[in-house]
Structure formats: structure tokens, C-alpha cells
Design brief:
Two copies of one chain form a homodimer. The first copy, chain A, has 539 residues and is α/β, with parallel strands linked by helices. Chain A has 18 helices and 26 strands. In chain A, strands 2-1-11-10-12-13-14-15-16 form a nine-stranded mixed sheet, with helices on both faces. In chain A, strand 1 (35-39) and strand 2 (42-45) form a beta hairpin. The termini of chain A are far apart. The interface between A and B is large, with 67 and 66 residues.
Chain lengths: 539, 539
């Protein structure tokens, strides 16, 4: 025992659990009259938000909900969804956000697996939820969240949100978790194969990742943030808590429509929003008249599928400042960022776009990141060529998968989180994703990165969206097959597409088949490559 | 045991100790070529800084320095002092920063109390240190830090800093502390009475407070920070670690001279600095020609003695954006901030200055703050009148006092840190310090805040500095006595000062005596009121 280990213990004055709940309390104390949430004509202050969360927590507590209980939510990006991010953990319960695009069977599976005690439902999803609740073994209390902008009743609900909240005491005394490792939320992976896995977050990670967002993205005080990203997606990448930490304003959004997005950017002076590349594509292709009249700086964070450089370039040309990030549900959303270097501003625009499309470096609060051999965990050379798997380590890596020790153990093997994504490491330490390990095409023993082929397709002026998958081949093992959605009014032949790729890629990487039409997507906007692989094999 | 407690444990992939060392590593990895330190003509990058710290840590480790050992430093704000904030904790040792204005006896006391194993010395302080080392029982390894801008040799040193560093291996494998509660630094209080107390910080607190600075002060990425605040003072309020978190630039400064400060602000585009009100007074009273030509925004953070509103107003008039904070050595430096509200911009300038002079609200990462009865810990009314003691709670409250369980227990009594400062709480929750509990004047049973009287004195156009203390009085118990330093060339009588105070204060609060001359100060720039009280009683 050394000098500094003696009589210098933790006590209530010098040790407090890290929890994003402290951010809400501070915003309410310091800026009670600042606007926390805007939803249509509704304006809710931070003082009111805090009071509403306390009352809702009290009501949940009175109904027996407490530590370790699951509270589910099938809600769009409305104020109630934001409030649940605080009210539920105030009683020690765990918020389970359900992807609003899921089918009844999947929802029932999740509610049963999570042993859901309460479920909050927006009437837009009443039909699906009606079936899901009947199908599920769990018998949660069903709460209807009425939203002025979507006014149908939910026939299955036992009680309405505001009524439940009003059961609660104004002066309910909630407390921080005794242990910051306590679970705060549960998010199911989209699960392209088999049953989805339940990713569990804790208070410590939520607190740190909320702050990491603010610092890594340089959000400043009082950002105005538009909810283009679903809050059910990795808890909106932890932004509900980032907004509380920076006392910002949440601008709610039920539906992602370019016209509405541009309108809100102008009327509410939105200066931050996040979105998958598909959202950016929608904005880029929106009529010019919607885009006119934005006179302030807008910062966009994008992740999801790696956005082709051309999308980033188009956004920048529209005057939006794009930050490219990358992460997984298992890492609380984004955990790497393509941190910008001032000297890159001197480069030609297309080179800038290529640099900006890299997944980059660890965000401020991820502790370690590497591209390594999936078997030996030996780091790959930083040569921009040697492909390996991306591994992370840090406080914003999940606790594990709920009731799935095997999957947890596998994903943490060797003391690193295994992302399943394949990347190279550039000389400057920036990572560049080449593919999901299951998406890579192996043709005649050569690896073909589907992302590389897609990024060439995106450069074709007629192409709006593109996805490339492997098609089984007796001779080559696999061959690349492209699925392409054309921009409105454009016409182009399969041969033209293939020729364009051959001009811009090594010939063996060019697709051998091109299918035109819409792309099937998961509820989070990711292209369902397994569906495309099925189609490709049937050609 | 609930659902969420099962098989969701900590492992190396999802739990990493919070430590500011991770910030240095990230800055070096992501921005190796950005400038970390500027000292005169010297420019050191983040990559070099990291490499230098690793080598120094290796050298310390090879000489047997490790976990829980004390490494002392008697250094001005030069690059070596910055590097020690990382190199020392890299081996698990504790950095003990010595106030460079201390006398040999006090230094010897600290080195013995801290059981110092190594001491780094700048030759400016060689004479004092020579005596101190001879006087001390501890026999630390003495290291001379040579600084180009101050080139005398230190006769007592065994080895020079760069030579020691070069003993170390480039590829030394340092590690984060296993427990983030591990001690990182030791800072002695100025100790106006009795022996100073050794305040111990830990890695977790240093990490969180570094981030709290960045967010609370809205520092953004890559700030350029001028070292007007001594790094030996609460580890420069944790800014060495904040600069690493934000990959900023440290502009070093051996001596606080207004001319140099203005020169560096212009030449290095400094946009952030901290300083006690005395530093601000120096800047305000500097010749006009030095101040001209600053064309960028400069943010100033000030604390220490509460700055009279007039000082803040003058700084704002010079175009500097002043943030007023408050804290103690025990709270890692500032832990409250006078958070600004946009609507205050509409108020008259003098009202703004009064608002800005309040100590404000808890910073983003202090968990709780209250003004309460020192005995019962009952919170005072938020009425702007009821005076109580300031109490804090949070992860940026010290571990405790080294080898002083009694003092630690007393300061943490009731689960709150007892600041010893007296304040009122305004209706909006902002605190306003009225005095140190030992400084308050009680005259005829009425409390007189010496700060209130001082702030009136500062409004007198001839007054440069002022301090008010109690003078013993047989009839009234105590009476206020003022000590005043006049601006150059100004002349004013005792009666004029007293009359001015009576015009602007309740009569019983006006000083009954005025003494003209310089003010005695502690090494951290605080007025030594105990010295003044002695003089006052002898009048």
C-alpha cells in the first residue's frame, strides 16, 4: 500500500455515478426557459421537460416499474420519445426502443426476449402492435402516445401517455444509479440473418458517448438539432443525451421528407442533423426551390453504409458541412470520425471528398481502434492495401448481448470488440471500410470490395442508388452483380453501366450483370444485400 | 438479480479507465504534426510531445519510479512542465507541482510531507531549492530543466532534463491505471494559517474536469491557449489535459508581463487564456499601444478572488470575452461558471457586468452545488440575501488531503465538500460569493461582506486595487478597514474614499479607516488578508 492509497477513499462528496440524467437536471436548473423540444407548434422548455420526466418516472414507479425492468417504445421522433430517454432510467428501468418499420412477429420476439413490462405506442403503428401484443407472451402495460399531428386512437391501449404522466408526483425523488455500469437502454440489431441480438448500454457509456458527440463534432453550446435520424436507432446515436449536455434544442420530425427538412432548417435555424446516406441522397435530389434560402451554417453527420464520395461532395456543394462517422449498434452508434485537417482544404474538391469518405480515426472517447487479422488480432500494415477486420475497445462499447453469452463472448474474444467490418488502414492511421466481412466478393481467389464497385457506380451521372453483391459462379466461385436505381427520367443500358465500370476499375471487379430497379432496404435504411444475393443467384 | 445483471460484465473491450493520458495518445495519433507547445522560437508537435513523454516515463521507470511515488516540479510554464503532466502519470507516479513563489522552508515541508522521489528544477529557483533540498529529510533525485530563455545552471542538479529523457526507450510500454481512482497529482493549498494541506487528484477527475473545461467554456477544436495561469496552480485548472483533449496549442509564458501577453496574443493568434483578477488589472492598466492590433476574438476565464464587476466591464470594453468561474484547489480548480444567457445581452453594460461577476452555476461535470447552513446542511432560500456556505459534490472534488484524515473527514462531513466560502443564492440559482467564512466582518451584530465594500472601492476612478478587513473594536466587535492602492499619478484622501463608500453603501458597511499602499499577496496572487488584519489591529 502506497502513500496515495491511504484514507483517500470514495465518498458521496467526491464520487458520483456517471449518468446522462445529470445533464437533464443541469439544463433544467441553469436554463429552465430555454426550448428543449419543438414539435410542430409545440414548444417545451428544459424546465418543463425535466418536470414531465420526473412525473412520468413517478408514475412508472407507482406502477411497480423499477431497476432492471424493460420499458419498450414504438414511437417516431416526437417529444415523448425524447422524454422516455430520461424518465425510464430515472427509475432504474431500461428503455427498449423498437424500430418502427418492423413487422409484428419481430416486435413480439423482441418484447418477449426483453420481458417487456410497459410499451408506449404511437397510433401510426397501432395495427402492427395490436398483432404483436396478441402474439407475444409478455403482457406489458400498453400506453397510447397521442400526437396532435397524427391523431388516430390506439385501440389496444389501456391508458394515454399524458394521463399516465399525470398520475405521477411533481416532487418524486429519483436517484442516479448506485453503479454507473447499470443498464440504461436496449437496442436490437437489425439482424440480417437469424434472430436479432439485444445490445445493452449502461449509464457510464451513455454519459461518455453523449459528451464524445459534443466534443468530436464541435457542437458548441445550444445547438439546434433536427431529428432526421430515428431515435430508435442506437438511441439516436446518443444525441438525446448530447442535447441535454449542451442544452440544445430538439426539432422533432415524424417523417423524413426533404421538403419538411429544408423548411425546418430555415424556420427553426437548425444547425445540426444526422442521417444515413439515403437521407442525404434524398436531399441532394430534392427540387431546387426547397433548398433555397438557407443562410446559416448547417453541419451534417452521416454514417450507416459508407457514403460514396460523390454524395459527400454533392452535400458540400449545397453548402452543408459533412462529417463522416462510423460505428455500430454495439458501439453506441458512431465511434470513429473522419477528423478533418485544415491543410486538406487546399486539395481539389474530389480529393477532399475521397478523404472525407474514409471512416477515419477513433472519436475522442473511444479508447482504441485497430485494423487487424481476425484470427491473430495482429494489426495490419498501415499501407492502404492490407485488409483486416476493424476492432474497438472503450467505454462506448456495449455491455454485451442480452441473454446471449455465446454471442457476447465471441464478439469480445481477445479483449477487443469484433466489428465484422473489413477495412484498410491508411498511412496516416485513417481507416477505410472496404466491406462487411459477409459482403466481400471472392472471385477467382481475388477479393472484390463491393463498396469500391458501388462508389464507381455512384459516379455515373444517371445512377441514383447502387448495390453490388456476389452471384455464385461455377468457374470463378463468385462474380459481382450490380443492382441500380436510375435517377428520374434517365435511361441507360446494362452494357453502358458495365463499360463505365471497366473504364474505372480493374476489369475483374466490374459487375458482370446489372439489374435495374428499386433496392430492398432494412428498416434503418441499409440495403438488404441478402435479398439481392437471392435475386442474383436466380438470374 | 435482474435480467440486465446477467453475463453483462466488464471486460477489456468495454471498460477502460478514464485517464487524461488517452487524450495525449489520441492527439499524437490523429494530429501528429499539429503544434502542441510554443515556447519562444521552439515549436513542439503533438507527435513529438507524445514521444518525449514516453521516453521520460521510460527513464523514470528505469530509475525505479512507479505507482504511488511522488515526482515534484518547481517549474514555470515551460514545455517540460506540460510534459510532466503526462510522463509522470504514465508510470503511475504522482505529479507534485510546487508554487514557484514559495520560500525554502515551505518547499522543504512539502517535499518531506509528499515523500518526494524526484524533483525537477528550473534554474530561476535554484537558490531557493538549494536551501530547501538541504533542509528536507527527503533526498529526491534532482533534475535541472534547462530553458533557453533562462540559461543559468542549477548547481545542485544531478542530471539535466533532456539527458534524463534520453535515457528512456522510445518504445516503452506505459499503461493506463488499472483503477481510474488512482492518484495523478498532488497540489498543496496556499495555507494562510498553519501548514498547507496536500490535495490529491485522481485520473477519473482529471479526465472529467479536462472535458468539463472544453464543454463549459465552449473551447472548440484546436484552441490556442496562453499560459498566463501558473501550471502549478491546481494543475493549471486541468488545462494541460483539456488542451490534449481538444488538440490545442499551448503557448508557454515564463513571466506574466502585459507587453508579452499582448504580443503573443497577436503573433500566435491566442484565443483563450485564464488569469486571476490581478492579471486582468495589469492588462487593463497596460499602455494603449500594447493593446492595439488584436483582430480576432479572445476568451478570458477568470477566477481567484471574485473580480469586481468593474474589472470584468473594462475587459469586455477592451473586446475580450470574459467568463467568470469559481473553484478551489479541492475542486480541481473552477467548478462553477457564470453561464451566460443570451437575453442578458439586452441589458445595460453595468448590469451585465454585475451579472457576469456572479460565481454562477455548476459547470457541466460538477454534479451538485448548494448554498446551505454550515451546520445543518439545510439549503438557504434563493432570495439573494440569505448567506450560507457553498457546498459541492461531484467527480471533480478531490480524493482528500494527503496523510490528513481529520481534515479530509471535516471537509467531507455530511457527504458534501465544505468550501468555506460564503455566498447567497439568487432566485435564478446563481451563486454570488460574499466572503470567505474567515473574512466576513461582524460589526454590531451585522454581517459585512468585505467583497461588497471592495467592489464599491473598485468603482472609484482613482483606485487600482483594494482590500477590506476587520479591525478589532471594543464597542462594535469589528469595524471595516480598507487598504487601497491608487492608480499611478492619482491622489485622494482618506475622507474622500470613506465618503464615496457612504454614498454607495449602507453607512455601517463603509470603512472607518483607509490605508494607502501596495497589497501583500500570496504566491497565487490572492491578497493576504491575515497580514492586513495584523496591520489594521495595530492602527
Amino acid at each position: 500500500m502506497n502513500l496515495f492509497d491511504m484514507s483517500l477513499d470514495k465518498n458521496p462528496a467526491n464520487y458520483v455515478s456517471l449518468s446522462p440524467l445529470t445533464f437533464l437536471k443541469r439544463s433544467a436548473d441553469v436554463y429552465p426557459n430555454k426550448i428543449a423540444c419543438i414539435h410542430g407548434g409545440r414548444r417545451i422548455t428544459w424546465g418543463e421537460t425535466y418536470q414531465r420526466c420526473v412525473k412520468l418516472a413517478a408514475a412508472l414507479s407507482e406502477r411497480g416499474i423499477g431497476k432492471g425492468d424493460t420499458v419498450s417504445a414504438m414511437l417516431p421522433n416526437i417529444p415523448a420519445m425524447f422524454e422516455l430517454h430520461f424518465a425510464v432510467p430515472m427509475v432504474g428501468a431500461v428503455l427498449h426502443s423498437i424500430n418502427t418499420r418492423l413487422d409484428a412477429g419481430s416486435v413480439a420476439f423482441q418484447m418477449d426476449h426483453a420481458e417487456s413490462k410497459v410499451v408506449f405506442i404511437d397510433s401510426e403503428f397501432a395495427d402492427v402492435m395490436d398483432v404483436a401484443i396478441k402474439e407475444a407472451k409478455a403482457a406489458p402495460l400498453v400506453v397510447d402516445v397521442k400526437d396532435e399531428s397524427f391523431s388516430t386512437d390506439t385501440p389496444i391501449a389501456k391508458i394515454e401517455y399524458e394521463t399516465l404522466m399525470n398520475e405521477g408526483n411533481d416532487d418524486f425523488s429519483w436517484s442516479l444509479p448506485e453503479d454507473e455500469w447499470q443498464s440504461i437502454t436496449l437496442n436490437y440489431t437489425s439482424g440480417t440473418t437469424g434472430n436479432p441480438k439485444g445490445v445493452v448500454y449502461h449509464h457510464r457509456g451513455a454519459y461518455l458517448n453523449a459528451i464524445s458527440n459534443v466534443i468530436t463534432w464541435d457542437m458548441g453550446s445550444h445547438p439546434v438539432y433536427l431529428w432526421t435520424l430515428p431515435m430508435f436507432h442506437c438511441n439516436g446515436w446518443c444525441f438525446p443525451w448530447s442535447l441535454a449536455a449542451s442544452t440544445g434544442t430538439n426539432v422533432c420530425l415524424r417523417t423524413v421528407l426533404p421538403k419538411t427538412i429544408f423548411k425546418l432548417i430555415k424556420s427553426e435555424k437548425v444547425n445540426h442533423f444526422c442521417g444515413a446516406p439515403t437521407v442525404l441522397t434524398m436531399l441532394i435530389n430534392a427540387p431546387k426551390k426547397h433548398k433555397e434560402g438557407i443562410e446559416h451554417n448547417v453541419k451534417v453527420m452521416t454514417a450507416g453504409a459508407a457514403p460514396p464520395a460523390s454524395i459527400i461532395q454533392s452535400m458540400e456543394e449545397m453548402g452543408f458541412d459533412v462529417t463522416h462517422v462510423y460505428g455500430l449498434t454495439e458501439t453506441y452508434g458512431p465511434c470513429t470520425v473522419c477528423a478533418w485537417h485544415d491543410e486538406w482544404n487546399e486539395l481539389p474538391v474530389d480529393e477532399q471528398a475521397t478523404l472525407r469518405a474514409r471512416q477515419g480515426v477513433r472519436s475522442v472517447m473511444l479508447d482504441d481502434l485497430m485494423v487487424a487479422d481476425p484470427e491473430t488480432l495482429e494489426p495490419m500494415a498501415k499501407d492502404g492495401r492490407s485488409m483486416g477486420e476493424i476492432f474497438m475497445r472503450g467505454n462506448n462499447v456495449m455491455k454485451g448481448y442480452l441473454k446471449n453469452q455465446t454471442a457476447s463472448d465471441e464478439s469480445f474474444k481477445g479483449g477487443w470488440f469484433h466489428s465484422g467490418d473489413l477495412a484498410v488502414w491508411h498511412e496516416d492511421g485513417y481507416i477505410d471500410i472496404k466491406d462487411r466481412s459477409k459482403d466481400i466478393i471472392i472471385s477467382g481467389g481475388e477479393n472484390i470490395s463491393t463498396l469500391e464497385v458501388e462508389s464507381v457506380l455512384y459516379r455515373h451521372t444517371s445512377v441514383m442508388e447502387a448495390a453490388v453483391v456476389a452471384k455464385k459462379d461455377d468457374v470463378w466461385g463468385e462474380k459481382p452483380c450490380a443492382f441500380v436505381t436510375l435517377k428520374e427520367g434517365e435511361e441507360v443500358t446494362e452494357k453502358e453501366i458495365i463499360d463505365f465500370c471497366r473504364e474505372n476499375l480493374a476489369h475483374y471487379k466490374a459487375p458482370k450483370f446489372v439489374v435495374f430497379g428499386g433496392l430492398p432496404k432494412t428498416s434503418t435504411g441499409k440495403v438488404q444485400k441478402f435479398v439481392l444475393r437471392g435475386i442474383a443467384d436466380d438470374i
